[in-house]
Specification:
Elements (H helix, E strand, L loop, with lengths): L2 H4 L4 H23 L7 H22 L1
Helix pairs in contact: 2-3
Protein name: Large ribosomal subunit protein uL29
GO molecular function: structural constituent of ribosome
Keywords: Ribonucleoprotein, Ribosomal protein
């Protein structure tokens, strides 16, 4: 996901996306601990997506 894809969304959509990504990160971490995760790079990508969404939310709050 790129920042340009999420910068045009409203605050409610961003909050929903953020919650979904955090739940996904939790499940990926659980899979990593139980040796069920095949690609550990997914965790890195989800963390970057969370950061991008958080940035978009902070830009919306500023104005």
């Amino acid at each position: 996901m790129k920042y340009t894809e999420i910068k045009d969304k409203n605050a409610a959509e961003l909050a929903t996306m953020l919650k979904e990504k955090k739940v996904l990160l939790f499940t990926l971490r659980q899979k990593l601990k139980t040796m069920q995760l095949t690609n550990p790079n997914e965790i890195r990508q989800v963390k970057k997506d969370i950061a991008r969404i958080s940035t978009a939310i902070s830009v919306l709050k500023q104005g």
